[in-house]
Design brief:
Blueprint (H helix, E strand, L loop, with lengths): L2 H4 L7 H7 L5 H14 L3 E3 L12 E3 L1 H8 L1
Antiparallel strand pairs: 1-2
Length: about 70
């Protein structure tokens, strides 16, 4: 399962995403998965004005949703 498909119908926290993907190593997940997906415009933060917001979650962008339709 990929990061994009994990967020298909979900808005999830970093911890929830990692659990669903059975991944450990927060730093590696952020640099290897999360940041590249955000840079590519596939996912976005629910609180982009405050990246360290205690209730920060992630969701698909329209571009990410379009990718799943292909």
């Amino acid at each position: 399962m990929s990061l994009v498909s994990t967020l298909k119908n979900n808005v999830l926290s970093l911890k929830e995403i990692m659990e669903r993907l059975s991944l450990t190593g927060r730093d590696n997940f952020i640099t290897g998965y999360l940041n590249p997906a955000m840079k590519d415009g596939l996912i976005e933060q629910t609180h982009p004005e405050n990246p360290k917001h205690p209730k920060q979650k992630y969701r698909l962008t329209d571009k990410g949703k379009d990718l799943l339709k292909q």
